[in-house]
Amino acid sequence: MSFSGTVRLTDLNDFIAPSQNCIKPILDKRSTANQSERMRFDRDEINKSSQEKRILKPVSVTLDDCLACSGCITSAETVLIEQQGPKEFLKMIEEFSNDNKVISKELKSLFVVSISPQSRASLAASYNLTVEDTQRKLSAFLRSLGADICLDTTFARNFSLLATAEEFVDYYRKNYLNCTSTSLSISPLITAICPGWVCYVEKSVSDVVIPLMSKVRSPQAIAGSFVKDYLSKTMNVLPNRIRHVTIMPCFDKKLEASRSAFLTDDGSSREVDLVLSTSQFKEILDEKCADFKNFDSSEQPNYLCLFDIFDENALYNHEGSGSGGYLEFVFKYAAKELFNLDISSVEYVAQRNKDIQEARLIHDNKVLFHMALCYGFRNIQNLIRKIRVGKCAYHFVEVMACPSGCLNGGGQIRGIDKMTSNVVEQLYHSLPTVQPGEWPNLKLLINRWLGGSLQSEKANRMLKTQYQAVKSTKSMRFNLEW
Length: 482
Fold this sequence. Notes:
The protein is an alpha/beta fold.
């Protein structure tokens, strides 16, 4: 008997849409432990294990249910894509504008939009604009819809980078400085700014990875705490009267914004109310501003003039990767703080593919620390295997779920060729770079917002978070119908 040398599998998809069977059991109060029930979105389900048939009420699965379920990784994302899209944004900003026409001074409102630098670069490439022109036109367009303040989340990344670098220095001093052990196994500090990676860790590999996760928030999450805390108090607007929308390169940022940890202190609202992907925001531009490239951006900011912290015309970037440059900054910061070495540039060594790159600090023929960029789940799986078997050689790892990192996020504008993808990267890196600690208004904002120090109790609440394992349900994964 002969066999074909090639087996071709097509149309394979492991994505679990909410219309399919969900393995999270939604049991009523009379349910018993030996029942094996299924739940299907938007329809009734009959209990198939008990002797008598009874119709269960139609279930309602919230985003929190999805995030608290270990059954799958991506169903919650689809729920959010449906709940947080262009229509919802336009409805929100229209309602906000109508409210403001009749609102009393005691109940005034504020509409804030925060734009990620990766999204801005993707939009700039799509419209053949410079990054600076794109930012000005975005701000003017959003204000024409009714937004009050447009922020560049690079300011929040200053805090994220600095807090991560300080966290690593403390981690290294505690675990490796003056260490006499000859063990080759290292437990790295791993970034946790990628929500897809965080969701995967909490649901699948929590036992191994959560103790190694950085506690520092992502730039989006820090921007959220800034808007609902600092702006709320500075502008004398209640947190639940502020609408905060972000434009991000990744659909999973919707998951991040919906975490219960990212509520305001009084619990009245989320720190980020709605997240639009870059591609979703382009849908809004296509509908509301067909000629965005020639949109008049001469309108001056109407609220930012109240702040001496931000300048829309002074855009800047950070050195390093298109995902924020975490390894780059932590490497240089730690070299100076731990060993008093000034590093002008970091030398990266690509491994089997471009999405896994390593960098070593070598002094007097001795490796002082070893770091890595790890992008894409193929490389992430290899990293986790090395950690499990005690063969990880890294002290710090910058992890992103998307291949090529955030510039190639799942929410970026698609239908572009490799050349355009390169243009996105070039535009992203076209701005002048500023070291986070050298941002002119950093100390001012630390004093006004964080109590004068990045180590203060206020800074710990505003800049950091916690992660926890999502316990597996008793339902079986093979209950899913493929």
